[in-house]
Here is the input.
Amino acid sequence: MLKVLGIIPARGGSKGIPKKNIYPVKGLPLIAYTLRAAEKSKLLSACIVSSDNPKIIAAAKKYGGKAPFVRPSALATDKASSLDVVLHGLRFMESQGFLYDAVMLLQPTCPLRSSADIDAAIRMLERNPSADSVVSVCRLEEPHPVKTLQIVKRKLKPFLAGRWKENLRRQDLPETYFLNGAVYCVRKSTLLKKPSLWGKTTLPYVMPQERSVNIDEILDVRWMEFLLSR
Here is the structure.
């Protein structure tokens, strides 16, 4: 079995929703949903929260999370990459004597992924030794990329001119998927050598729409609340 470190990145700054990572959703801060999924996982070896914000760190600890460090301010800007945050967390934990085979990035803005999703992605990486990573995706229903348009000099133009036509039947188009942001499970060797969250061979872990909610705006919160109420 792979030893997998879960990392929940939760910086203090956010534009669409102030204090987004601890925004209350049906009585819980947003980050609590990811913490609970990680806690119920059977295959994560450990899980930590990486944050620069004392309120987020306090909220994470209140709901059972571990925040063993305060993230450096240089890694808490809009320009800081998820890869840099993951590498920092991994190196910190290994400096404390904990060794891992892989890292799983669990963004708190994707709160409806389940512990079963976490474990299924880990199993997929375990069963495919040639794969560098497993990344969660969701099928894109509408609009299909071939149907999209752009405005050029105030006129409508097909975004994919070679594929577009006025009447496109859904059944004639290939299936397409988008990154839902819920799960990135990456081998340590890929993180350190490439460095990359993808690597050369990335396997898709397909998730349904109802667990692929990504929180950017208040409308996303309302949609999540509706789904939880159902």
Observations:
- The radius of gyration is 19 Å.
- The mean pLDDT is 94.
- Residues 4-137+177-229 form a domain with the Spore Coat Polysaccharide Biosynthesis Protein SpsA; Chain A fold (CATH 3.90.550.10).
- The first helix runs from residue 30 to 40.
